Amino acid sequence: MDKTAGFEVSGVRIGGKEPIIIAGPCTVESEEQTLTVARAVKAAGIKVLRGGAFKPRTSPYSFQGLGEEGLKILKTARDETGLLIQTEVMDARQIDLVCRYADILQIGTRNMMNYSLLKAVGEVRFPVMLKRGFMAKVEELLLAAEYIIKGGNERVFLCERGIRSFDDSTRFTLDLAAVPLIKKLSALPIVVDPSHATGRADLIIPMSLAALAAGADGVMVEVHPWPKKALCDGLQSLSLDMFGEFVKKVSAMIQFLASHNQEQ
Amino acid sequence: MDKTAGFEVSGVRIGGKEPIIIAGPCTVESEEQTLTVARAVKAAGIKVLRGGAFKPRTSPYSFQGLGEEGLKILKTARDETGLLIQTEVMDARQIDLVCRYADILQIGTRNMMNYSLLKAVGEVRFPVMLKRGFMAKVEELLLAAEYIIKGGNERVFLCERGIRSFDDSTRFTLDLAAVPLIKKLSALPIVVDPSHATGRADLIIPMSLAALAAGADGVMVEVHPWPKKALCDGLQSLSLDMFGEFVKKVSAMIQFLASHNQEQ
Amino acid sequence: MDKTAGFEVSGVRIGGKEPIIIAGPCTVESEEQTLTVARAVKAAGIKVLRGGAFKPRTSPYSFQGLGEEGLKILKTARDETGLLIQTEVMDARQIDLVCRYADILQIGTRNMMNYSLLKAVGEVRFPVMLKRGFMAKVEELLLAAEYIIKGGNERVFLCERGIRSFDDSTRFTLDLAAVPLIKKLSALPIVVDPSHATGRADLIIPMSLAALAAGADGVMVEVHPWPKKALCDGLQSLSLDMFGEFVKKVSAMIQFLASHNQEQ
Amino acid sequence: MDKTAGFEVSGVRIGGKEPIIIAGPCTVESEEQTLTVARAVKAAGIKVLRGGAFKPRTSPYSFQGLGEEGLKILKTARDETGLLIQTEVMDARQIDLVCRYADILQIGTRNMMNYSLLKAVGEVRFPVMLKRGFMAKVEELLLAAEYIIKGGNERVFLCERGIRSFDDSTRFTLDLAAVPLIKKLSALPIVVDPSHATGRADLIIPMSLAALAAGADGVMVEVHPWPKKALCDGLQSLSLDMFGEFVKKVSAMIQFLASHNQEQ
Questions:
Q1: Max intra-chain CA distance, chain C
Q2: Where do the structural domains in chain B lie, given as residue ranges?
Q3: Nearest CA in chain C to D91
Q4: Residue-wise pLDDT tens digits, C66-91
Q5: Which chains border C (3 or more CB–CB pairs < 8 Å)?
Q6: Which of C236, D56, D79, D92 is the most buried if burial means most Cβ atoms within 10 Å?
Q7: Complex ipTM > 0.85
Q8: How far is B207 from chain A (nearest CA, A)?
Q9: Which CATH superfamily is B19-263 part of?
Q10: Which fold has domain C7-263?
Q11: Does domain D7-37+67-259 have CATH number 3.40.190.10?
Q12: A20-55+64-263, which class in CATH?
């Protein structure tokens, strides 16, 4: 892989030689919760903090996220730690607002085929992580990315986060074969989100290692200081202890893959 | 079923005693094409014309619809025939524009989980047909409808249009059991779209009859005067000849079901 | 459709002008249970009784059927009522035994790709109902039937019984579009089993009507005198009361379709 | 993991500390083809040769395998190389025959729910690899294994080989999260077959590495000396060159995982 592959976001290369880790709470719930996670993420040497302020929820009666208040909390975390902030945008009318607080825009799985949003995001000059729709074929994901790129915004990376299948043993079915397949079809970086895919904290470490071994450009995981009290997705969030183990094992795998690829 | 079930749109009852038929081209391509279909629809005694001006296409390089020009053509068809106009809205910023031309808003399958759009549509006082996402469970469809209703817009009806499965014998898998199931779970009317579900013109008549027999409040079908020249979805569009046969058979089934239910 | 289409089993035509009804308990549990259902089936003017003696169960610790004792109970029911007996064969080594008691062999959904069994069944001269595998494409079902026909056993009919999808609102997803599709691809008769497909007794009547409207050559339903006490599939079995309503509505639909097709 | 976990087959431990590799042609086509592969497998330090003599094919008109002649070729390969032989059994009536030639019985994906076969295999004292049905949930796979174990045959290991989903980008969807999940639910060893899962030779190496990183007890791959001339599954077979690269990369990963686990 070319050292200059991928693209830079404020000094952090996505899709370059070294895989990236993105970590943080599913949802920004409070300043205390977010800062606690942000400090652990920073201490682990990770560069990007994820956290949702606008949340697409299946039911209108579920917690919908803190909105702009959540964005402000993320900014506080950035000011303190220097971490890059990645957060979801659900609506073209939110883009300006979110761009004032975030470093990377995230398009969620339910909006991968929201072509109006993709076009709008293509008009800004802001890096975008596009999650695969849980109902999208690989080709449809690549064409969705084209909607953004066609607008002139070329800093797009993809995220495999599980697809729907008949098997409910895990929340979704993580389609890791999509990773090397996309590497053959496209130059876009691709990261993997085992948290949403499996819905189980105890499967995140093995599936993160598998994702990297399959050639992913990074992994994104959910971390929560108090998973049992999480407002959203607590079962699939790493506790701070598990996050420590995750960082250790993932770092060893990254190091192995780097040295192994160098030899060849 | 109660005579006063469902709701009225300019004198047409949706979800009432008599099933409704919605017909028209997938995409508004030209005035000639749209008016030719509209006249056939009107002549068949049907009340609602469908046609897309804004088209959510998988590829940004495919024809994206005529936009406002398409809406104007639909208005011409309404002025001539008196048909109600149903057309898709893809973006909250389009709602005002579309409401100036249409009688019924349509939310497409790819936007069923676009909660920003659902909320925005909940704020207008305009009837809405919400298509089931092709990867949405029945419960998720009902909760998506709640996003609209919660905003105060109660004139919502649903559309079963096929879900994704492993079997590619038909374009999607028409889930007709969702019809009687939704009748047990909700008071919302539900119609069936066999055109998108099967992707094959030659399956539309049997599946329309099946939908009505299963208890659907109506069927929606695509009609094109020259299917082989259609810019979109030609293979699944009824020609005018097939449309004639469709109307004859569907009318007989509707009459049978009405007389049979009366007897009981 | 040709009057002489399909084939005869002891005077009962399958795939002919008139759709067939097959009814009975999921599992033969006792003589009392089976005879109670058989008498109700006979009284309704139905010609074929279904009932399982060998049961393919997901767990080895579940009730596996009464085996030959169950076959004897079915024979008692035949001797009393004159109904044809349809029952499942799971193993090539059981074929001779089952043929001594049954009139129609049934291959279950889990064995549709058990090609050794299909070949073995192709070697006898006995009518066979082949259920679609719940993960089989339409083409695979037709090719599975070829395994039987290639052996020289041409009295095969198919059964659509629902496929697996991501949606667990119903037990399986009944793929009714497969019915008219198979009519276009093959001369084999096809019936529909809404009991296993939906897993809910309250959806059986609408889905039976839909199946017939879609052009099915028959429907197969589960009936149990005491559904709440059933050893298997109680939730999806019609009680005797519901069965009465089923017969009435299905008969009216069959009559409508016959008169309507005659007119044309 | 316990050094004494898993079980032994003629001195080869399955499910022990070190992952196992199983390699060979999809189908035994000729002595030359099979011996060519067997020698390459032996030279790579691998212990188990796979190859099909009885082939479950979707169409009765496809090549069905060489039958006993194929078994004899496998025996020749064993006599020359000392490799253990793993081959599929499709029918209870074949078990005695296959046991005369093989060291490990394989139950194929289409027979995972062929409970008669599972019971019959439970009655012999012969190791069995049970492939997950491409339509089976994880729980159903574990219960299928119970059918074998209940008979007293405890040397069972599982194989994840991809499940069916809506996405046809790869032949099946490899469900790697099933690997750590099964590790939590069961003591049975589990290997991964990326050849059938992806259907693409160029994805086998990354998915093998991913499988091992996820904790699999081994990988099974198809190798063919002349993939373009293969009678079955040529597109997904590794050529001898690719097999060399596979062995090198997989060995490095196994070594890394062993040293890394030791450290902890």
A1: 55
A2: 19-263
A3: C116
A4: 999 999 999 999 999 999 999 999 99
A5: A, B, D
A6: C236
A7: yes
A8: 24
A9: Aldolase class I (3.20.20.70)
A10: TIM Barrel (3.20.20)
A11: no
A12: alpha beta
